[in-house]
Amino acid sequence: MKKIELKKPKDDTFWLRVLSVFIAIILWFYVNSIINPIKKRELIVPIRYNISTLSKGLVMTQSDAKEVRIVVSGTQDELGKVDEKNIQAVVDFSDVRQTGEIKLPVNINNPYHRINIESVYPKNVVVNIDNLVTIQKDVTVEINGNPKKGYIINSYQEEPNVISIKGAESDIKEISKCVAQLNLSLNDRSFKASVPVKVLDMKGKDITSLFDLSQKSIDVYVDILKTKQVPLTVKFKGQLPPGKIISRIVLKPSTINVAGKEEDINSLNEIVVGTVDARMLENVSTFQFDFNLPKNIKALDNVKQVVITIYTDSIVQKSITIPVEVKDLESKYLASLSPDRVTLTIKYYQSNQSSIDFSRFRAYVDVSNLTQGDYSLPVMLEKPDNIENVEVSPSYIKVTITEKSQNQ
């Protein structure tokens, strides 16, 4: 058998190189175990429910978890590089085909190759799957607040007044109504506003966030009118017989509350309800007129007919002569009047004749603060309250004031 001989390496540094590699390995283990050891870190990561993978016609309504607790491990240096926002916890619905409660795994997407996932809690979540349905629902406009004083809301128009609501079948059944709540703030002009739509349940709770709405807001046009109380009047044609007059007109109602656009209301000072032929009037005459409003004016009172009572009377003229008195003459003076009597021409309604007290007529001149001398003073008159038309002749008289003699 031939003997094999090992040749001695010509390079004397060979063993030095082997020793260097060995020392490097020892140092690597030292650095990683002592200076940069393996550690663990707990992360809280929100769960992303990938509902885009859910079959058409289904929707997730509830889940029993919103986040997972993940324990990761790695060297201290590598753990320091971890941003928990880059780690995703995803629930996939690709295999879901039915409604009800379903348990699904939480999948962790870890972009850090030197980081290990030690544990995940919870590993599974329970979700509730329901049918996805769409319904049509009327939108009710609710107006809160009031317009400015002297104005009213005439009407409002919403566009659109029906919207589509998409959501879980169990949530759809809880819907009571859809409302658009418009708040007024002393408005005095018509306006258009974009108003958010709310979906309310039977208890009035806002559950809009559960649904996908075809319109998140609707346009509401509000028509505001100005109000006014306007007197009612009547017109006459023809002439009363000589000596006759209309003494009183009574309308029931005598006024009406109306509304209209500002320019129309501002120009409206009365409403004529009808025309009466004066030749047909008796002492007391009653008429009924169907009530009609001017164009563009809206009645706020429920007035369908106006009853008008017209009173006529005869004018009586009477003349009486009464003495003129002197008022507030100082005691040391005497006053002489020229003339000392005046004639009163009195006009009154014949129907009032029995109630007139002619003795209450009193004519006088006021000489207060006057001294002796000649004056032309107006004749003052006191008369009964139910007499208005009186002429005094003469209306001025001459008054002479003298001092009393010592014998007087």
From TrEMBL:
Pfam family, one: YbbR
InterPro entries per record: c-di-AMP_regulator (IPR053154), YbbR (IPR012505)
Transmembrane as UniProt keyword: yes
TM regions (residue ranges): 12-31
Keyword Transmembrane helix on entry: yes
Protein name in UniProt: CdaR family protein
Organism whose genome encodes this protein: Caldicellulosiruptor morganii
Keywords: Membrane, Transmembrane, Transmembrane helix
Gene3D superfamilies, alphabetized: 2.170.120.30, YbbR-like domain
Lineage, opening ranks: Bacteria, Bacillati, Bacillota, Bacillota incertae sedis, Caldicellulosiruptorales
PANTHER family: CDAA REGULATORY PROTEIN CDAR
